[in-house]
Amino acid sequence: VALSATASSGLSVSFAVGSGAATITGGTNLSFMGAGSVSIVASQAGDETWNPAPSVTNTFTVAKASASVTLGNLSQTYDGTARMATASTLPEGLSVSFTYDGSVVAPVNAGSYAVTGTVNSTMYQGGANGMLVVAAANQTIAFPAIGNQITTNTVALEATTSSGLSVSFAVGSGAATITGGTNLSFSGAGSVSIVALQGGD
Known about the structure:
The chain is mainly β. It has strands spanning 14-19, 22-25, 29-32, 36-44, 53-62, 65-66, 68-72, 75-77, 86-90, 96-100, 111-119, 124-125, 127-135, 141-142, 154-156, 160-161, 168-173, 176-179, 183-186, 193-197.
């Protein structure tokens, strides 16, 4: 803001910041360091002919400038770590704070989360809303081959998943039964197929 004021004497007026986040450079150039109420005092100290003039204070409100926010990284896949959105701003480089379904803690699990990104600045205000979708991750099963057996054997079935989730077993075909979840026994000779399953979560 270019400050200007006149005195009835015709003498020049000086300016000072009475209160608020503001500075004056070059005598009349008023700029701001944040939002809020600002008071500017105009003074004239007088001379050998004129007495000092009563100071005049002008108080006004400074609002934050507007900034635009664009959310990014809203489509992700579960990997056991916190899934965080990103943001770009105009002007560039402004700090942005995030909430996920109202919480400041970024989600870990698969699901959909309402994201709000809000500019965190003394000079700018702005924000954006979006939806962070965390997809379930793919997993694999490691199921070692079962060697040839005889009908009187009992086989303890074992398998592991890349996710660490437990595996269940079923008889795909053949004269066999599974008891206790992992104990494979036979009711006759022939080809047997065992299926390892993990249904996800």
